[in-house]
Amino acid sequence: MIQFKNVSKVYPSGTHALSNVNIKIEKGEFVFIVGASGAGKSTFLKLIMKEEQPTSGEIIINGVNTTKMKRRKVPYLRRTMGIVFQDFRLIDKMTVFDNVAFAMRVIGAKSRAVKKRVLYILGLVGLKDKAQSRPSELSGGEQQRVSLARALVNNPSLIIADEPTGNIDPEMSFEIIELLNEINKQGTTIIVVTHEHELVHKFHNRVIEINDGRVTSDSGATDEHVAIPIEITPENLADLPEEIAEEIADVSPQELNAEALQAIEQGEAE
What we know:
Order of helices and strands: EEEHEEHEHHHEHEHEEHHH
Radius of gyration: 19 Å
Low-confidence stretches: 221-241, 251-265
Strand order of the largest sheet: 6-7-8-3-9-10
Strand content: 15-25%
């Protein structure tokens, strides 16, 4: 799903942010990116989101070489991603509902689809009863869950969380990662950038460490790191080990809002 091939990034100031990075993240993985401040973690994310261009090397996302992607196609790439920020980036004059709904409205989703999908997602993160509250009336952990709901509402295939636990207490930090784990179990790829090694060690996910712009360790992608998608199709069923395929063959498809997905697809077609 995401592949960095010999990627280096040197900023105009002369700072070598990344040097010859080779990383492959498969669909359905949950990956922690760790490292000290200034190690290159933020640059790694910016390259995935195409906020920055690599100095050399190639970045492949969903089979597309984004280093050669035209600028007009970048918004459509970003629609496949949901971003969770450390500082939440919520609009306080809007209610919780409207903060989450905003992500759907900007792509032209219909009001009926917005209402149904937003309330479903707020229920998923445990905030349905806070739909009409303002962000300033919520705790830090609740605000981060609103940020997560906004990232989820357009059904992205990839969630990128940039230091999502940086501004909340340890107990709530654990709950946020637990929630991301549950989302990952439904087949969504999760990338979490963090400096909290103690928190990372509580979870059994792949860990990539970046120091001085280089990958210094990678626990590697194994079968246990790849989530089985809830939505079973003949294509992905054929790729699974026989014993696993038999166990999950009767699993119901993930509940999705067809109208919201149709609105996204229409927006991409335009």
